[in-house]
Specification:
Layout (H helix, E strand, L loop, with lengths): L1 H23 L15 H17 L7 H63 L3 E6 L10 E6 L6 E2 L5 H18 L4 E5 L7 H14 L4 E5 L3 H4 L4 E8 L2 E8 L3 H10 L1
Helix pairs in contact: 3-4, 4-5
């Protein structure tokens, strides 16, 4: 009989524990309630306060845990993507800095070469004078502007904008040749570069151009007879009955040379 009552008591106690945890989220098993003076009124107030607190929580969303886990997963994915982007940004900044460092070194090296060539070619084309390129001060070489300063024979050093048309043309051609000496282009089109020049300057420029023709093909648009003397092939356009006709003549053809010699 004692064992039966004891089992019933233990079962009732278990139900009380379970009921307290289910309704009030209180685990009586962890509470020291043994050997304490029991106050029914205080316990009733505590229970009432607990019920009111639970009511304040509102309706419980049974999907809250699943929604939390879903949002947490999305957060982790976004966080990882952010970390990847920041890491990629750092890598790109390092690559950009390396490219800029290499570009500055290459630019400075080639700028110095072109500057020396520019001075030498300018003197050759005008039989004297000086020419130089200047970078804007206190600026990154990759962003700085370039000033062209030249001194034709018998004149002061001047900015390119203050020169005559012929001097500007010679300066521009000298700069082009200076660049070709560093890195030649396989093809070059020159549109009436000799228009503001006299025959003497044209001859010097064409002699210089002949030296570059081994590595570069030049097409020159010109009205100058002096220029035509230096070309290998001439193409001419003439109007016939309102239609432009093209005629070509290979000036270095041996047969043409013999013909011109015979006819004087």
């Amino acid at each position: 009989e004692f064992n039966t009552k004891s089992a019933l008591h233990n079962n009732d106690l278990k139900n009380i524990y379970d009921n307290a945890y289910e309704k009030y989220s209180v685990d009586l098993r962890t509470r020291d309630i043994i050997n304490k003076e029991f106050d029914p009124e205080k316990l009733q107030n505590t229970m009432q306060n607990s019920r009111e607190e639970i009511k304040k929580l509102g309706v419980i969303n049974p999907l809250a845990v699943d929604e939390y886990n879903e949002i947490k997963t999305q957060y982790e994915e976004i966080k990882n993507q952010k970390e990847d982007i920041l890491a990629a940004r750092k890598d790109l900044e390092k690559i950009t800095e390396e490219i800029n460092r290499t570009s500055r070194a290459l630019f400075t090296e080639n700028f110095e070469k072109i500057n020396k060539n520019f001075h030498r070619i300018f003197r050759r084309l005008l039989n004297g004078g000086t020419a130089r390129l200047e970078l804007e001060e206190n600026k990154d070489v990759l962003e700085a502007g370039i000033e062209i300063m030249v001194q034709p024979p018998g004149k002061k050093v001047q900015h390119l904008s203050l020169l005559s048309g012929g001097e500007k043309a010679v300066s521009a051609i000298a700069l082009m040749f200076a660049i070709f000496m560093v890195k030649a282009s396989p093809f070059c089109l020159l549109d009436e570069i000799d228009a503001p020049l006299d025959e003497e300057n044209i001859s010097r420029i064409m002699e210089q151009l002949k030296e570059f023709s081994a590595n570069t093909q030049f097409i020159i648009i010109t009205h100058s007879r002096t220029t035509i003397k230096y070309v290998d092939v001439m193409y001419g356009f003439t109007p016939e009955s309102g239609i432009s006709r093209m005629a070509s003549l290979r000036l270095n053809d041996p047969n043409l040379t013999r013909y011109l010699q015979k006819t004087g």
